[in-house]
Specification:
Helix content is 47%, strand content 14%. By secondary structure, it is an alpha/beta fold. It has one domain: Alpha-Beta Barrel (TIM Barrel), CATH 3.20.20. It is globular and about 60 Å long.
C-alpha cells in the first residue's frame, strides 16, 4: 500500500474520521496467484513473480488498501513448518499441512522457535530483506506484519478435532500448549518487524479457531493469549484481528482484547457487531466473500456493500468482505466495493 493509504487506514483504526470510508481487503496467496495467472509454486519460490504480482495489485486497485500489503507468506504453512509440520505443496492451491502432535506428550519435544533458522520463516525474512528497498523505491510501504494466531497454530500442530477434545479432557495441557504457541506468534511477528524496519506500525493476527468456542471457553482459552499478543507491541501500533467464524458469543469481550480493527463474518450484521463490540474497535467488513464476492455479479456486490454502509452509517467502518479475498473473486466485484463507497461518500457530503 501507499503511505497515504496506510495513514487513512490507521486513522480509521484508531477511531478517527477519514474524509471517505476506506476500502480494504486482506489479499494473500489463496487469491493472488489466480489473479496474476501464475502457479502457486512459482509465486512462492520466485521473488520476481511475487514482486510483480503484488505490484500489479497495487496499481490495478489504487483505491483499495491491501492488507497487510506485500505479505511474504506461504498459505498457512510458515509457523507450523518452523515447528516440524510436514508441508504439502501443490501448484494449483496453497500448501496443506499434516499435524505432528499425535499425543499430548509430544509437545515436550518442541523446542522454542528461532525465526532466523526454522522452517519457512528464514525464507520469508530473506524475501523481505531483499525486496523492501525495491518496494519503497516503487512508492509503497510495508506497515504491517502478520501471523496466524495461537489457537490456529495449535490446531495445525495437533488437529482441530483433537484440540477441541483436549480443551475438555486436559485443559491444563492446553494452557501450556497455548503459552508455547503464543510465544511463537510473538517471536515471529517481532522477527518480521525487525527485518522490515521502521515502516512497521501494526500487526495482523488471523485466528478463526476461537469462533468454535463458547463464551466461557473463549475467555479461558483465547482471550488471555490474544490479549498477550496485543500487549507485546507498542500501544500506538494498529492491531488487526481476522476471525470470520462465529464471534457472536464473545463480541463484547473481544472489544476489550486490545485490537483496533476486527475483520469479521458476514453472518453477523454490522449493526449487531457494533452494538456488542462497542466503539473501541473499527469494523472491517462485511460483504459475504463467497456467495456475493465470488459468485455474485458486480451489481449484487454493489448492493451488498451499500447495505453495509447504510446499516453502519459509514462510521467506525472499513468496507471489506467478511474475510479475506477468496479465490476467483472477479476484478469487477472488487471495483464494485470501491464504487459503492465512493457513492456513499458523495451522498453523505
Amino acid at each position: 500500500m501507499r503511505l497515504e493509504q496506510w495513514n487513512t487506514f490507521k486513522l480509521a483504526a484508531k477511531g478517527g474520521h477519514p474524509d471517505r470510508v476506506p476500502v480494504a481487503l486482506i489479499v494473500d496467496s489463496p487469491w493472488i496467484p489466480g489473479f496474476a495467472d501464475v502457479g502457486h509454486l512459482e509465486y512462492y519460490v520466485d521473488q520476481e513473480t511475487w514482486f510483480r504480482a503484488n505490484l500489479r495489485i497495487a496499481r490495478e486497485f489504487p483505491d483499495v488498501i491491501p492488507v497487510p500489503s506485500w505479505w511474504a507468506e506461504y498459505g498457512m504453512a510458515i509457523e507450523p513448518s518452523a515447528l516440524g509440520s510436514r508441508v504439502h505443496f501443490r501448484n494449483d492451491q496453497p500448501p496443506g499441512l499434516s499435524p505432528i502432535l499425535a499425543t499430548r506428550e509430544d509437545i515436550e519435544r518442541l523446542a522454542p522457535v528461532n525465526p532466523e533458522s526454522d522452517g519457512l520463516m528464514p525464507f520469508a525474512l530473506q524475501l523481505y530483506h531483499m525486496q523492501k528497498s525495491r518496494i519503497m523505491d516503487a512508492g509503497y510501504t510495508i506497515p504491517l506484519v502478520a501471523a496466524r494466531g495461537p489457537l490456529c497454530l495449535a490446531s495445525y500442530l495437533r488437529g482441530v478435532t483433537e484440540l477441541m477434545m483436549d480443551l475438555v479432557e486436559d485443559p491444563e495441557w492446553v494452557h501450556r500448549f497455548l503459552e508455547f504457541t503464543t510465544t511463537t506468534v510473538i517471536r515471529w511477528l517481532r522477527a518480521q518487524a525487525d527485518v522490515i524496519g521502521k515502516t512497521v506500525e501494526g500487526i495482523l493476527v488471523l485466528d478463526d479457531i476461537p469462533g468454535m468456542l463458547s463464551k466461557r471457553s473463549y475467555l479461558e482459552f483465547a482471550h488471555p493469549y490474544l490479549r498477550r499478543i496485543c500487549e507485546a507491541f507498542p500501544s500506538d501500533w494498529v492491531k488487526i484481528y481476522h476471525n470470520d467464524a462465529n464471534t457472536r458469543p464473545f463480541l463484547t469481550e473481544l472489544g476489550e482484547c486490545g485490537f483496533d480493527v476486527l475483520n469479521w463474518t458476514h453472518r453477523i450484521d454490522v449493526r449487531e457487531a457494533r452494538e456488542k463490540i462497542g466503539d473501541k474497535v473499527c469494523l472491517m467488513g462485511n460483504v459475504a466473500p463467497l456467495d456475493v464476492g465470488v459468485r455474485g455479479t458486480s451489481d449484487v456486490v454493489h448492493q451488498a456493500a451499500r447495505e453495509v454502509l447504510h446499516n453502519s452509517g459509514g462510521k467506525g467502518l472499513i468496507l471489506s468482505v467478511g474475510g479475506g479475498v477468496s479465490p476467483g473473486m472477479p476484478v469487477a466485484n472488487i471495483q464494485a466495493l470501491v464504487d459503492a463507497a465512493r457513492e456513499f461518500d458523495e451522498t453523505a457530503r
